[in-house]
Design brief:
By secondary structure, this protein is of the alpha+beta class. Strands 2-1-3-4-5-6-7-8-9-10-11-12-13 form a 13-stranded mixed beta sheet. The longest helix has 11 residues, at 65-75. The protein contains five helices and 13 strands.
């Protein structure tokens, strides 16, 4: 984790990624301290009600989980959740390979991978750990291990308060779930809204597409659990 001769920058962000001053952080129930190296995010400390909630750390090709975890725990002994992420570029998207270590578990992390678009939005998340468990005993599988997310700033402002939001839900309009075979099960609209939550099932999908003004490409993408959008062979 040595970072000799590298340009480092720190900043604080609140809801919707809006940068705030360090002295303003106590006014926010949830905020993040973001540390960048050479213009790229390297380490993110997420705070909730003034307490360190979790840490996200982006690995380079020379770093190992065990080394990074040891240093993070020494620097932040009261933190119990660490997200170690490796990035891969594919078909114009970032694929984030994530290993989540909770409460002292340094050996068997929860493993996920996500599709991240140009705006930095996680549009699809796959639970690799559950996928492996289901491959051993598929009778336990009740839904796909993939979840998809659609974001829109204008629509979000229509159905929820921008005052205080559930952490990491920036502009999330709907969250889509799928059946074990990958077909559409339902989408929960306004998952962090206060009074307009509703479910769209497969029979209602055209209504959801129209409401969100999805193009043909994106309507097709959100209708199945295919990992990458249609310009991919995945």
């Amino acid at each position: 984790m040595k970072k000799e001769n590298m340009t480092s920058k720190e900043k604080y962000v609140g809801a919707f990624g809006i940068e705030i001053k360090e002295e303003e952080k106590q006014n926010h129930r949830w905020y993040k301290k973001v540390i960048e190296l050479e213009g790229e995010q390297k380490k993110i400390l997420s705070y909730y009600k003034g307490e360190l909630d979790y840490i996200i750390y982006y690995l380079n090709s020379l770093e190992q989980d065990s080394e990074v975890l040891t240093e993070l725990k020494e620097a932040h002994p009261n933190c119990e959740s660490f997200y170690l992420i490796e990035k891969e570029k594919k078909d114009g998207y970032n694929i984030e390979h994530e290993r989540i270590y909770h409460e002292g578990n340094d050996i068997y992390p929860w493993i996920h991978r996500s599709v991240v678009n140009e705006e930095g939005e996680h549009i699809c998340s796959e639970n690799i750990t559950l996928g492996k468990l289901f491959s051993i005993d598929n009778s336990r599988q009740e839904e796909s291990v993939r979840t998809k997310y659609f974001y829109n700033e204008f629509m979000y402002a229509q159905f929820t308060s921008v005052d205080e939001v559930i952490k990491d839900s920036d502009f999330l309009v709907f969250e889509a779930k799928y059946k074990p075979d990958g077909s559409f099960d339902h989408a929960k609209f306004a998952p962090v809204g206060t009074d307009q939550n509703r479910y769209y099932e497969a029979v209602d999908y055209d209504e959801l597409v129209a409401r969100c003004n999805l193009s043909t490409k994106w309507a097709k993408y959100y209708f199945t659990d295919t990992f990458l959008p249609s310009n991919s062979l995945d």
